[in-house]
Amino acid sequence: MLASPAGADQGVAGTQGSVPSVDVQALTAQARAVLGSAPAVSVPADAEWKFDVPQITIVKAEKAPVRTAPSRSVRTAPSRSVARAAAPAFASGNVPQAVAGNAVLEIAARYVGIPYRSGGKTPAGFDCSGFTSYVYGQLGIHLPSISSAQRYAGVEVSRADAKPGDIIWTPGHVGIYAGGNMQIDSPRPGLTIQFRGIWQTNPHFIRVTG
């Protein structure tokens, strides 16, 4: 047995009691007996360790088909240059500034170049009263188809008070006042709708209010 230091047992016993002794020689003998009965394993000095590594084959994945959206026809607005080319050309380059922003004159100007046609009331051909009644009709205003009747289709105003878009009337002929000394009308057989100077003597200006 191992001897405890002097006074150790007394100090411990005095507070917690005596500690049992351990037989170290007996434990050592048991451990040796176990080791003696275990089988001995010997490994040659030139032994080699081998690991079987499985062969790996890499297969390239196929790409999934790309889905494309169905084609759609897209309508594009014509460019301004194309639109201008499609518009009828003015027979007269002397277009008054009063046309811009004036509903009556803007509509009338669309038909510059249309030939005079006796009794005509459509863009296939106009006579003087057929032209004025057609233009005003585009604005929802009904005018008589005879020039003499259009004389009383509105209120007569003086030349000084006349405004672009008013009717300009003389016996046997009618047109649309375009401001200044200009008018737009369908003159006579052989000519076309055009802006031109007021040639009539003492014309009447008629304000049509609808």
What does this structure look like?
With 210 residues, the chain is an alpha+beta fold. The chain has a domain at 89-207: endopeptidase domain like (from Nostoc punctiforme) (endopeptidase fold (from Nostoc punctiforme), Alpha-Beta Complex). The chain has helices spanning 8-15, 24-37, 80-86, 103-109, 128-137, 147-150, and strands at 121-122, 125-126, 155-157, 167-170, 173-177, 182-185, 194-197, 204-207. The strands form two sheets. Strands 3-8-4-5-6-7 form a six-stranded antiparallel sheet. A two-stranded antiparallel sheet has the order 1-2. The model is unreliable at 1-15 and 73-93 (pLDDT under 50).
Q: Which structural category do the helix and sheet elements fall into?
A: alpha+beta
**Contiguous uncertain segments of 5+ residues:** 1-15, 73-93
CATH topology of the domain at 89-207: endopeptidase fold (from Nostoc punctiforme)
Task: Give the oligomeric state.
Answer: single chain
State the shape.
Answer: rod-shaped
CATH class of the domain at 89-207: Alpha Beta
Radius of gyration, taken over Cα atoms and rounded to an integer in Å: 58 Å
Q: How would you write the strand order of the largest sheet?
A: 3-8-4-5-6-7
Per CATH, the superfamily of the domain at 89-207 is endopeptidase domain like (from Nostoc punctiforme)
> What does the average pLDDT come to?
76
Tally of extended strands? 8
Architecture of the domain at 89-207, according to CATH?
Answer: Alpha-Beta Complex
In terms of DSSP E residues, the strand content is 5-15%
Helix content: 10-25%
Largest sheet: 6 strands, antiparallel
Helical segment count: 6
